[in-house]
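Action item from last meeting closed. Structure (822 res):
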C-alpha cells in the first residue's frame, strides 16, 4: 500500500539505454504518437519523437523521486521566481540522464543529425536575464544534490519579447514558443485554484472566529492551472518539478452577451485572464501596466501558496507544522506579496491567531535580494494595492504596526530609521514597499555575492540590519557546469576530460587539477585550437543570422547581458569609438585585431537603453565600412540574445566584459560562464568579480576602475564629470563625435541628450572610469600579443572556477537556510 492507501502496482523494468533500443523507441513514437513513418517524417517530427523517448526515462526518475520524498516525509523546498530561463531541454535532459552519446548513435543509425533537430527546439520564453537563468541553474542543481524541490512561476505565452533590429532600433515582437505545443510539460487540471482580485472584506461569519479572521469577497476571479515540467539532475539522481501557472477565465465566454451581438464584450473575462500570463514584465510606465504587473505577481504567488498549503495539509494534516516541512524561497521581490498571502490563508482559512500566523510565516519564508537599485526594489501605490488586494492591505498595515512597534521598543531608532523600516513609504505618493515586506516576513535574507551582501547591510537594508542583525547572510551565486561547460563547449569538455579524468563532472572543484597544464605548450596548443573552432562556429552563425563577416583570428570581445545604464554598454561603445580614432590616427602601431560583440534586450519603456542599442548599430556601420580599420576593428550587435545564443557566444569569447559601475551589480553569473569557458575577464571590482579575482588570481583577471567605496565617496563629496572629461583627450573626442552626429548623420542630434547626461551628472561613472578602462584594454592587447601567456591565463581561469558551481551554492542554501540534508 502507498501513502494514500492505494494498492502499489509492480514497477516496470528500467528502460535500457543503448543505441539499438533507442532507435526502435524513436521510430515507435514517430509512428504511434506523431502518426508518421520514417520516410515521411520531417526534422521537427524527429525532434518530437526523440524528446518523447528521453522524456519516458525522465518520467521514471521523476516518479521515483516523488515517491522517495513522500516516504522520507522531510522538508521540501519551494522556489518562487517570476523567471525561469531554462533554454532548450533536449540536450540538457539527455546529458543529465547519461544517454546523449547513445541517442546520437541511435539517430545516426536512422540517418538523422542530432545537431540539426536540436536546433529546432524553441527556447522556453520564461525569463529575460541573469535572474531567470540563475533560477534555472538552481533548479538543476537542487535535483543534482538531491534536494526535493518545486519551482513555481508563470507559463508565459509570449515571454518578454522576441527582439529584432530594424534600422538599428530594437523592435519588440511576440515570442511564439508555444505555437506547436511543448512536449516537456504536463497539464495538471486537478491542482487548479481560484485567484481573486478586488471586492470587499467583511468580518467572518464564524462565531468562533478571532478578531483577525475576516472574509474576503473578491469582485473578480480567475483560475490558475498548473503545467509541470520535470527538471532532471546530473546522472538522473533526482528529478524535481517546475510548476508554471496559466490563467484561465471562470467563464471563457459570456454566452448571453455573445448571442445579443456583443461579440467582443462577451470575451472580456477571457481576455483579462489571458493577459495575466501572456507577457513577462509588461511595461509599467502606465497605471494599467502597473496593475497588470501586480496582478501577475499576486496571481502566481497565491496559486503557489494555495498549492503548497494544500499539499502540506494532505500529507501532514496540521497547518502549524508548515515551517517544519516547507522552506519557501522568494527569488527577489516579485513574489513578496506571498508573505501577505500566507498570512491571509493562515488567518482567514485556518483560524490561526495573528501572532502565531506571523511566526509561522517568518519561519517558512526566506528572501534573496538581487539588487541595490532602489527602483528595482518594487513598490506599489497604496490605492492600487488596496483596490486589487483589500484584505492583503489590511494585513500589511497590521504587520507594519507590529514591526514599527518592535523597532520603537528597541530604543535604537529615530524617526528617520523608523520611516526606512516601514512597509509603507510615506515620502510623496504612499507606496507599499515589497522589499521591506519580504525582509520582515523572512527568517533569512541573503545577498548573492560577498560585496553585495555587505552593501545590503550598509545601504538599502541598513536599518533592518540593525533591528535584525543575524538575518542577512551571503550566498554567492553559481552556475551549473553541466550546461555551461559540458554541453555548450564539447571540445573544451573533452580536452579537460582527457587531461584530468572524469572527477570534475561530479566535483567541479576538481577542475583545479587543470592548473598544472596551464604552461604546457602542447596543452596550450590544443586549448587554443578548441577556442578557434568555437570562434569559427560563431562566425558562421553570425554570417547566417546578420550577414556579419568576422575573422576568427581576431580577439572576440563580448558583452552580453540586459541593456541597462549601470551595466555600462555605453562605456564599452565609447571606448570602441576612441579605439577607432586611435587606429585611424596611428596606423603604424601594432594593433590587435578585435571584434566587439554586444547582445541583450532593453525594456520596452527604457528609452536610454534602446538608444544605446541604436548607438551600437550606428558605430558598427561607420567602423565596419571604413577601409582604414578593415581587419583591426569590428562592432556587431547580435539581436534576440537568449540561452541558445549564449551557448554559442560564451565558448567563443576571448574577453568577457563585466564592467558595471562598482557597487551596482549584485553578482553576475555571465562572468562565471565566460571564465569557465576560457575567457579572460575585464571588469570592475563589482559583484562576484571580487570573489573571482580572489579565486583565479589577480594576475589572471584585468581589473580597472573605481571601487564601490570610491564611487560612493565621489557621489557624496561632489563629482564633476566635466572636469574629468576635460582632462581626458580621448574621452572628450569620443563624446564630441557621438554628440555631434558623426555616427548619426541622418539625425545629428540623436545622441546629444545621452552624452549630455554624462557631462551633467554621470551617475554611472562612465567618465570617471573611462581612462582606467581604456588603459585596461591596452593591457589586454599586450597579453594577446603573447599567445602562450594568454593561453596560460585562460587555462588558469577554467581550472579555478570550480567553486562557482551552483551545486556549491545550493548546498549552502540547504545547510544554512532551508535546513535540508545534502
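Sequence:
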Amino acid at each position: 500500500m502507498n501513502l494514500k492507501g492505494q494498492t502499489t502496482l509492480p514497477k516496470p523494468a528500467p528502460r535500457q539505454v543503448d543505441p539499438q533500443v533507442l532507435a526502435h523507441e524513436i521510430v515507435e513514437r514517430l509512428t504511434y504518437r506523431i502518426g508518421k513513418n520514417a520516410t515521411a517524417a520531417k526534422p521537427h517530427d524527429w525532434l518530437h519523437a526523440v524528446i518523447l523517448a528521453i522524456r519516458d526515462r525522465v518520467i521514471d526518475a521523476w516518479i521515483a523521486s516523488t515517491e522517495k520524498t513522500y516516504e522520507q516525509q522531510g522538508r521540501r523546498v519551494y522556489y518562487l521566481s517570476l523567471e525561469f530561463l531554462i533554454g532548450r531541454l533536449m540536450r540538457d535532459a539527455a546529458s543529465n540522464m547519461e544517454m546523449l552519446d547513445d541517442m546520437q548513435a541511435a539517430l545516426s543509425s536512422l540517418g538523422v543529425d542530432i545537431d540539426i533537430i536540436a536546433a529546432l527546439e524553441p527556447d522556453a520564453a520564461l525569463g529575460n536575464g541573469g535572474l531567470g537563468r540563475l533560477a534555472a541553474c538552481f533548479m538543476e542543481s537542487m535535483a543534482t544534490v538531491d534536494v526535493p524541490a518545486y519551482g513555481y512561476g508563470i507559463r508565459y505565452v509570449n515571454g518578454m519579447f522576441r527582439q529584432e533590429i530594424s534600422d538599428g532600433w530594437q523592435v519588440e515582437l511576440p515570442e511564439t514558443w508555444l505555437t506547436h505545443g511543448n512536449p516537456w510539460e504536463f497539464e495538471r487540471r486537478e491542482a487548479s485554484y481560484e485567484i481573486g482580485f478586488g471586492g470587499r472584506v467583511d468580518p467572518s461569519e464564524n462565531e468562533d472566529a478571532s478578531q483577525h479572521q475576516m472574509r474576503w469577497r473578491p469582485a473578480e476571479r480567475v483560475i490558475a492551472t498548473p503545467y509541470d515540467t520535470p527538471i532532471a539532475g546530473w546522472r538522473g539522481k533526482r528529478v524535481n518539478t517546475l510548476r508554471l501557472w496559466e490563467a484561465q477565465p471562470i467563464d471563457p465566454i459570456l454566452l448571453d452577451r455573445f448571442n445579443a451581438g456583443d461579440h467582443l464584450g462577451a470575451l472580456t473575462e477571457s481576455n483579462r485572464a489571458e493577459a495575466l500570463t501572456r507577457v513577462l514584465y509588461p511595461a509599467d510606465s502606465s497605471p494599467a501596466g502597473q496593475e497588470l504587473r501586480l496582478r501577475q505577481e499576486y496571481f502566481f504567488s497565491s496559486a503557489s501558496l494555495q498549492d503548497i498549503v494544500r499539499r502540506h495539509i494532505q500529507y501532514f494534516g496540521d497547518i502549524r507544522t508548515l515551517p517544519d516541512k516547507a522552506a519557501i524561497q522568494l527569488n527577489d521581490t516579485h513574489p513578496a506579496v506571498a508573505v501577505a498571502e500566507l498570512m491571509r490563508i493562515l488567518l482567514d482559512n485556518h483560524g490561526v491567531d495573528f501572532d502565531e500566523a506571523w511566526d509561522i510565516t517568518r519561519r517558512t519564508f526566506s528572501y534573496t535580494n538581487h539588487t541595490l537599485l532602489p527602483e528595482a526594489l518594487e513598490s506599489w501605490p497604496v490605492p492600487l494595492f488596496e483596490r486589487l488586494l483589500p484584505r492583503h492591505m489590511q494585513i500589511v498595515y497590521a504587520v507594519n504596526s507590529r514591526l514599527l512597534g518592535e523597532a520603537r521598543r528597541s530604543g535604537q531608532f529615530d524617526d528617520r530609521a523608523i520611516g526606512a523600516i516601514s512597509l509603507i513609504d510615506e515620502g510623496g505618493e504612499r507606496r507599499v514597499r515589497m522589499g521591506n515586506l519580504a525582509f520582515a516576513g523572512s527568517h533569512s535574507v541573503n545577498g548573492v555575492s560577498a560585496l553585495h551582501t555587505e552593501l545590503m547591510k550598509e545601504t538599502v537594508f541598513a536599518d533592518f540590519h540593525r533591528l535584525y542583525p543575524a538575518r542577512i547572510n551571503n550566498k554567492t551565486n553559481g552556475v551549473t557546469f553541466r550546461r555551461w561547460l559540458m554541453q555548450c563547449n564539447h571540445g573544451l569538455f573533452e580536452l579537460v576530460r582527457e587531461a584530468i579524468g572524469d572527477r570534475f563532472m561530479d566535483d567541479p572543484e576538481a577542475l583545479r587539477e587543470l592548473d598544472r597544464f596551464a604552461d604546457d605548450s602542447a596543452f596550450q596548443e590544443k586549448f587554443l585550437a578548441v577556442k578557434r573552432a568555437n570562434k569559427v562556429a560563431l562566425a558562421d552563425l553570425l554570417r547566417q543570422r546578420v550577414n556579419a563577416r568576422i575573422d576568427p583570428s581576431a580577439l572576440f570581445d563580448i558583452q552580453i547581458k540586459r541593456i541597462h545604464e549601470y551595466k555600462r554598454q555605453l562605456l564599452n561603445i565609447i571606448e570602441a569609438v576612441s579605439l577607432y580614432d586611435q587606429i585611424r590616427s596611428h596606423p603604424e602601431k601594432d594593433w590587435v585585431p578585435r571584434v566587439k560583440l554586444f547582445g541583450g534586450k532593453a525594456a520596452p519603456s527604457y528609452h536610454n537603453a534602446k538608444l544605446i542599442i541604436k548607438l551600437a548599430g550606428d558605430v558598427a556601420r561607420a567602423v565596419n565600412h571604413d577601409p582604414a580599420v578593415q581587419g583591426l576593428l569590428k562592432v556587431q550587435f547580435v539581436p534576440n540574445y537568449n540561452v541558445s545564443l549564449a551557448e554559442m557566444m560564451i565558448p567563443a569569447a576571448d574577453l568577457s566584459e563585466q564592467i558595471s559601475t562598482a557597487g551596482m551589480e549584485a553578482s553576475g553569473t555571465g562572468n562565471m560562464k565566460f571564465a569557465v569557458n576560457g575567457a579572460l575577464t575585464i571588469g570592475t571590482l563589482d559583484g562576484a568579480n571580487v570573489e573571482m579575482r580572489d579565486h583565479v588570481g589577480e594576475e589572471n583577471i584585468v581589473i580597472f576602475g573605481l571601487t564601490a567605496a570610491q564611487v560612493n565617496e565621489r557621489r557624496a563629496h561632489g563629482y564633476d564629470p566635466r572636469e574629468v572629461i576635460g582632462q581626458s583627450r580621448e574621452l572628450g573626442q569620443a563624446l564630441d563625435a557621438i554628440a555631434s552626429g558623426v555616427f548619426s548623420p541622418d539625425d545629428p542630434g540623436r545622441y546629444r541628450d545621452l552624452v549630455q547626461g554624462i557631462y551633467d551628472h554621470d551617475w554611472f561613472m562612465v567618465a570617471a572610469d573611462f581612462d582606467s578602462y581604456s588603459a585596461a584594454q591596452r593591457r589586454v592587447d599586450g597579453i594577446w600579443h603573447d599567445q602562450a601567456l594568454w593561453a596560460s591565463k585562460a587555462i588558469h581561469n577554467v581550472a579555478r572556477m570550480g567553486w562557482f558551481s551552483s551545486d556549491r551554492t545550493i548546498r549552502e542554501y540547504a545547510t544554512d537556510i532551508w535546513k535540508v540534508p545534502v
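Note appended to the action item: The domain at 73-88+123-476 is CATH 3.40.50.2000 (Rossmann fold).
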